[in-house]
Amino acid sequence: MSTHNLSNIPERDRQVTWHPFTHQSEAKYPLNIVKGDGVYLIDENGNKYIDAFSSWWVNLHGHANPYIAGKIYEQAKTLEQVAFSDFTHAQAVILAERLLSHLPKNQSKIFYSDNGSTSVEVALKMAIQYQHNIGQPKRKIIAFENGYHGDTFGSMSVAERNVFNTPFAPFLFDVELIPVPVSGQTSSLRGSAKQSYPTDSTEKCLSKLETLLKTGGVCAFIFEPLVQGAGGMVMYEPEPLEKILQLCKKYNCITIADEVMTGFGRTGKFWATNYVETKPDIMCLSKGITGGFMPLGVTSCAKFIYDAFLSDDKTKTFYHGHSYTANPLACAAANASLDLLEKQEMHDKVQAISTFFERMKRKYENHPAIADSRNRGTILALELKTPEGTSYLNQLGKKMAAFFLQRGIIVRPLGNVLYFIPPYCINQSQLEELENCTDELLANINNL
């Protein structure tokens, strides 16, 4: 059996790896994590850290969950991979059946991919080719201002133009952006400059949307339901979203819900779109789908979209795929995660976190250092006041992350927006640690 040298990992890392979303010239030696245990990550020196952002929002049930690990192990001894073109396997079929049992009743087919960005790419291509296949090629896409849908070219195109995609702007297709229907004042992170939303943003949103829909040629509207994640955890209510979806339905505009971050209980319900009556035509899933164990993306669609690809004309085939489409190990992990999610115990845990964060939101609403506090289900966001205003590049984020890390908590603020989105296994005392550390941070905010 071969062995590998495990010494000096952080130093060696600097020589050979390129980390995502990291300013390389300022990058410090990364923390060497050697083990996970429930809500904790453990470094090479034995220090334990509460993972308060679920390792980029993917970990639902805690690290190294023995049940999911066991199911992956069982599957690995049987079948690790098979091309999903002319072949199938039980894990993929069972997972598709189970997902459809949870998804809105209008969803009829499951298409597998590798991650959140690719699930969005698939959705966009489905919508565009649907219009092509029915002989009514509509090319206009509508999206929210401040949105983020991934880092592939299609997903970048339907997002806010900002520091994340500026070098690629000449290669992105044009998209019509409409205001986010928030209530009150809240700030935008993803835009190139500070942007606030007035109290009449819902009316402006609906008015601009209907004007665009009336002009014709609109292919689809893509949105993050209720919570714009990477945009700074900007939140809005179900009521305006319902009106938006009804308008799109009225004008036969395909609707795409990007539930990559909001799915699997994050907003307090299984899907964020469960808060509205009118359901999207296409849904994008990833992140928590496997409980944080394996990469997997899913795009589901309504029957009328799938039917437009049923033809003797081979040019109407959906020519899209991935080498690891419906990987058996990833599907086994997702089925195991669903086993846990479907237990009443998990529902109770989600509700307990939601209740705790709702109280924290109210506690900080009028704090002099906080511009806005907001929560939806298991997500809490605190937008701090700074002279620089709200920006993803605001250096306060790094200072807050360092402050929490010194106290055994891992967070990854979005600029000056501090947020928590923990694994569902977090308990009351661990939640109180997050609150106590937040209190300490706010008491020392001028000294960071």
List the helices and strands and how they pair.
Elements: H1 9-16, E1 33-37, E2 40-43, E3 48-51, H2 54-57, H3 66-76, H4 90-102, E4 107-113, H5 116-133, E5 140-144, H6 153-157, E6 176-178, H7 201-214, E7 218-223, E8 227-228, E9 234-235, H8 238-250, E10 254-258, E11 282-285, E12 297-302, H9 303-307, H10 328-341, H11 344-364, E13 370-376, E14 379-384, H12 396-405, E15 409-410, E16 417-420, H13 428-443
Parallel strand pairs: 3-15, 5-6, 5-7, 7-10, 10-11
Antiparallel strand pairs: 1-2, 2-3, 4-12, 8-9, 11-12, 13-14, 14-16
Care to give the gist of this entry?
This protein has 448 residues and is an alpha/beta fold.
Tell me about this structure.
The termini are far apart. Helix content is 34%, strand content 16%. The model is unreliable at 185-195 (pLDDT under 50). The protein has 448 residues and is an alpha/beta fold. The chain folds into 2 domains: 10-65 and 343-447, Aspartate Aminotransferase, domain 1 (Alpha-Beta Complex), CATH 3.90.1150.10; 70-341, Type I PLP-dependent aspartate aminotransferase-like (Major domain) (Aspartate Aminotransferase, domain 2, 3-Layer(aba) Sandwich), CATH 3.40.640.
